[in-house]
Design brief:
Largest sheet: 5 strands, mixed
Strand content: 5-15%
Distance between the termini: 56 Å
Number of strands: 7
Order of helices and strands: HHHEEHEHEHEHEHE
Helix content: 40-55%
Bound molecules: zinc ion
């Protein structure tokens, strides 16, 4: 244990995802020994992102206005919605250039152990979009792991009753993985080979 402020910083950094105790300590000392101006820029960036960035009221993607750039873009196909878990997955799908529709960000996946059920996700918002818009196809692009599969199955079952075409990304994505880590070619192919959920 370090004294006071140093330990406090290590503890805070250690709460970040993917940062273990050793990394937290390394980061804390980087900050401690780092150039003051560099550290000020880092702090400003953190404060600014919390102040300025919001979530799109339509799709849940990160946005600097009420709606995100994709929802505001008139060139995007209004008939297709790609459902993803997180904003980072929007970036992953955008990189493939295989999709010209719009998105819906759920804010996670169904995970009973972590206490995340359908009510904790932005599923109600998705349903209300379906009643407003001229949606013809919902593409489910949740992660190819247990939670992602459970979420996809839940959505497919629910959407089937509404009578909208529901597709799921083709296999070929690494099982147990995270959408954001799939390379562009694999993810692009999975997109083009998407199949209707029966
Ligand atoms: Zn949006």
């Amino acid at each position: 244990m370090y004294e006071g402020a140093v330990q406090e910083l290590i503890d805070e950094l250690g709460r970040l995802p993917g940062v273990g105790p050793k990394s937290a300590q390394r980061l804390a000392f980087y900050i401690l020994e780092g150039d003051s101006e560099d550290i000020k820029r880092l702090v400003t960036a953190i404060v600014t992102v919390k102040e300025r960035v919001k979530f799109c009221t339509v799709c849940g993607n990160v946005a600097e206005q009420d709606t995100c750039g994709i929802c505001r873009d008139p060139r995007r196909d209004p008939t297709a919605i790609c459902v993803v878990e997180e904003s980072k997955d929007v970036i992953a799908v955008e990189r493939t250039r295989s999709f010209r529709g719009r998105y819906h960000v759920l804010g996670g996946a169904i995970n009973p152990i972590a206490g995340i059920g359908p009510d904790q996700l932005r599923i109600r918002e998705l349903l209300s979009r379906l009643s407003d818009d001229k949606i013809e196809e919902i593409i489910i692009a949740t992660d190819p792991n247990l939670e992602g599969e459970a979420t996809a199955t839940y959505l497919a079952r629910m959407l089937k009753t509404i009578g909208i075409k529901v597709t799921r990304l083709a296999s070929g994505l690494p099982v147990g993985g995270d959408l954001e880590y799939a390379d562009e070619v694999t993810l692009g192919r999975a997109f083009e080979g998407r199949r209707t959920v029966s």
